[in-house]
User: Fold this.
Amino acid sequence: MSVFQNMVKQDMKVFFNSDEFGEEHNIDGKTIICIIDDQTNRDRKGGTEFAVAQSTLFLFARSEDLPPYKEPGEELRVDGVPYTIETWDEDMGVSSVSLFINT
Assistant:
């Protein structure tokens, strides 16, 4: 493992620590430490959308903690709520999953 990879691994211990940024959430029946952000997608889309009955969120977690990769359009349950996967990206052991639900 390279020095940089070791640094990233150490950073993940801080980032996904419940005493720092991480929070416990139930993802598809398994409790993991992750970060859920509902602001990222709003910022990417240029602000609050009016008259749209859709809720979006962004989930960040260690890839090893999540269930196996799912394709866009498939379901991922977050704290018992069924969301639809918009995107699922993985980079250096961290997955970022964009989710939406029609409300």
User: Anything to note?
Assistant: The chain has one domain: 3-102. The beta strands are 23-27, 30-37, 54-62, 75-78, 81-91, 94-102. Residues 24 and 32 are 5 Å apart (CA to CA). The chain is about 20% helix and 45% strand.
